Amino acid sequence: MGELNLEQILVDSFLGYKYRKYRGMLYSADANVPINLIRLYYSEDIDRANFDSLKRSFVNRYIKSESKLEDIHEKQEIEGLAEMYEYIHTIPSEEFEMFSIMQLHRKLYSKCPYPEAGGQFRKRNVYLPGTGTETCDYSFIFDEFLKYEDTVKRLMQVAKEMRESDDYTQLFRFVRECIKLKCALIKIHPFEDGNGRTVRCFINRIFEEAGIPPVYIKVNERTEYHNAMNKANNEGDFDQITGFYLYKICDSIIELDINERLKVEREIRKQMENALPEKNSPSPLKMALKFKVASKNKKGNEDNA
Q: Which residues constitute the domain of residue 300?
């Protein structure tokens, strides 16, 4: 009974978050809102969703949203975005490193008329209009990548340890370090185009290693996201962009996990309502428990597949 109550608290808490966001009452400078929800979700007593199912749902949702965010209309670029996200799930953890970002960019442009341009560092200096952010001189890109090799290896190791031990006491420090890496990569701006999409994919892969649901940014959040990125890259203040990402992790938990729990609950109720009150038929409570056990067994079979 205690487990059922805790799961209900989890669902109710995230539904309250969802309602406040819908009513425009959510986003604020108060970082405690997402911190408390994420801390609850990653407590040791919570049975979290199967991560492979999260990834499948994410790809379907993200491709559409990210295409709008980046103002992508060409079919080849949308297909390349899907190709890139399918590819990151094929890279073994021990082989994922700083220069893997070049492979991701190559996949992003694999469907374009000139795919050989993918994965190539830019060969000229560029600036980001309207941001005030100074990008790396193109001749220093390779050297800048070398500086972050150890950072990526360390983050992947910490991520693996958290996921395997189910100990998430370092989670918020880990997320902040990932965001700092993301901001650094945007300033390096290694490619002629597609930097934002590629870097977000790269960071999502590190999140996934830790068991953190991947994050995507909706079109109506674009201004807030860019303002927070500019504040980080121009002023060295990472609070706003870190807080933004914590909210986005909550969004992903709702859309990729909590909503699925509600579907299961609706299915339980539907079966209970359709059950005939025959003498030998199981009680509604037994049916609900049986359905829950069956769902957990199915999840276990997927994990062992």
A: 275-304
